[in-house]
Amino acid sequence: LSPDEDGICSGRYFSESGLVGLLEQAAELFSTGGLYETVNEVYKIVIPILEAHRDFRKLTLTHSKLQKAFDSIINKGQKRMFGTYFRVGFYGSKFGDLDEQEFVYKEPAITKLPEISHRLEGFYGQCFGEDAVEVIKDSAPVDKRKLDPNKAYIQITFVEPYFDEYEMKDRVTYFEKNFNICRFMYTTPFTMDGRPRGELSEQYKRNTILTTMHAFPYIKTRINVIQREEFILTPIEVAIEDMRKKTQELTAATNQEPPDAKMLQMVLQGSVGATVNQGPLEVAQVFLAEIPADPKLYRNHNKLRLCFKEFIMR
């Protein structure tokens, strides 16, 4: 609907029944798209209108649709499919306006990295010629000076929705963690001498947080990145993060309803198996064998000890 058109306000949509019709259509589409929680939000606007008109037939229908939506939420639980997100960066003068632009792409839930790589490579291959397009395989920062000026480069990285700790208090359900999201994170492991991976004591990590112009889900399936922040984790901070993750996995596996012995066994083997190199035992030997000489390191040292305390308790 565009307000500049003549007679738009006398059109059939610009009436109470027109509005209700559009909202009902929206609710149907949300339901088809598996966003059942939003169906409830849409009907919150519709129901008072139907109540004012004493339209009990339509109210019956609406409430039965709401019941269906709530049933779907309960029955599908964690099995619901939302999106998978990728950061795509374009480099090279061939792209014109797109050069050095970054986007977050939202793909169907089970899209793997090779699929989107193949698709974008094919699409831009048709635009510029197959030989002119190259996909950058790692997620390290791109140095423009090392790139061939006659080629178009695409860098694709898997990203996950990112929330601050305070946000997690409000985002409890699986749906809330996948709806209305505009911040994403990816991590790049590195060592000071340039290799991506090394010993525990030299393994650093770069966490990159991207903010998009709009929140997903959106009308478009790709949105511009408008801000990026980078945090570097030192080896002991990387170890703290890993230990916290292992503790969470253990907690989830022990509290699972109904209990799942296979899952628990896998998590346990990954946590305490003697064959696991860089497992908790090695982390303890590398970082906790002796108290650090530098008082600045006490805080992380204690944090890691507390992580182990919690881990052993689990």
Automatic annotation (TrEMBL):
Residues 1-314 form the DOCKER domain. Pfam families: DHR-2_Lobe_A, DHR-2_Lobe_B, DHR-2_Lobe_C. PROSITE patterns: DOCKER (PS51651). GO terms for biological process: positive regulation of establishment of T cell polarity; positive regulation of T cell migration; small GTPase-mediated signal transduction. One of its GO terms (molecular function) is guanyl-nucleotide exchange factor activity. Keywords: Guanine-nucleotide releasing factor. InterPro entries: DOCK, DOCK_C_lobe_A, DOCK_C_lobe_C, DOCKER_dom, DOCKER_Lobe_A, DOCKER_Lobe_B, DOCKER_Lobe_C. GO terms for cellular component: cell leading edge. It comes from the Eukaryota. Belongs to the DOCK family. This is DOCK8 protein. It comes from Erpornis zantholeuca.
